[in-house]
Amino acid sequence: MTQMAHGAPSSVPLGLAQSRRLLTGAQAVAEAMRQIDPDVVPVYPITPQTPIVETFAQMAADGRVHSLLLTVESEHSAMSAAIGSALAGARTMTATASQGLAYMVEVLYVAAGLRAPIVVAVGNRALSAPINIHGDHSDAMLARDSGCLQMFAENAQEAYDLTLLAVRLAEHPQVLLPALVGQDGFTITHSAEPVDLLPDEAVAAWVGPYHVPAPLLDTEHPVTVGAFSMPDSYFRFKVDEVQAHRRALTVWEELAYAYAHLSGRELLPVEAYRMDGARRAFVVMGSAAGTVKEEVDALREEGEPVGLVKLRAFRPFPAAKLRELLSPVEEIAVLERAVSPGGSPPLWAELAAVLGRGASVQSFVFGLGGRDLIPQDVRTAYAFMTTPSRPEETRYLGLERGL
Amino acid sequence: VTYPTGFVPFSLPGGSVRPDVTHRPSTGSWRSQDPPQVDLSRCVNCLLCWAYCPDGAIQVHDAVWQGIDAHLCKGCEICVAVCPTGALTSPGTARQGGG
User: Does the interface predicted TM-score (ipTM) exceed 0.85?
Assistant: First the structure.
């Protein structure tokens, strides 16, 4: 379990009694969806997301949810149906991965532009070619500029928690954006772990009733959605999206405090792990954070001043918090699971832009197509952090060692 | 964010519009010639042009045809095509016989 949210009053007893279950990340998110009980779930299966929709479809067939499960013919159609549904006034969720997310991306831009608060569970997976079904963040990075909120879970528990947070964040009247809740394919989606579930009634109360500002089915107040926008207005709508992301960061923090009181678990956009007095820091998103935490613990035992900054939020990018945490740090290593051929890896580029000139931020890529990040890889990166020479180029962790 | 002087933020997110708060781009700037010419002596006030105009350029008050708003008329001439009496004609086009 992660550390308690700092800033939460310690005198208040935190967390409801919860039931601990042995669940994969996929099952945990399906349980979250059962508790949320969305009105409509248009979905198309794809590995490694399939066990999410498969589990949820069973729940729907067993009458455990009231959701309308729409078995559409593609992810493009899934998101198209989701937009209509969400704007009609129905709480809408879906799930996808990899090529499916890629196929959905065109319509994700529409969902974000129309400000449709759809929550999408993603089992993050590599993109073809060569075809590969295993975990990395290439699919998520394809949706980077879509306008969607993007979050990454470290484990099954966080995948469950972030799904509950995502509903509130996406639907918040100051936000109104789709949210992609990422969990690493197989590493999280297919690995069983102990997961604490909130009581059903607590989740029902947490998400509350669904509301959008201008539901299409409110025939007393007719509205046109998706009208043509000329150069005189389009620019403004895009800047509105940018502003909504800024507000989303504040709303996320508020929700994280509220969720901490409910569950006893921290969900802030950034997690600082052993950063007190750290002169060096790793920056990681997703399941690899667990491995890095182990190595940070070991390095601290050896007297090394090192910590970890884990991002749960990628969109909105928590720039101010990262500056606050990382400005005092002398050496930073970004370990990430995506590349941008011909350019810089996306998380490194983002962080380097946030920290500006003078910061020493090394770029490491690991785990493409599902290759594990092993403790030795973290040690390798740390060795580069303690070397006086500053490499200009991205280094690839675990590329040479094979599996 | 700082908006330019005179900018009013849209009331609904994502470009959704209510009937009474529709943002009207000045589609008249697209026009490459004059708006259609009007012969009111032929107009029977059927308002087909009003119903067909894609840009709301036909002005109607109390169900009576008033005129064409040149700021909105983009020159598509759908109104000319649907007018059953030849009251609307393309600018510079000689009116054809008949009615």
Answer: no
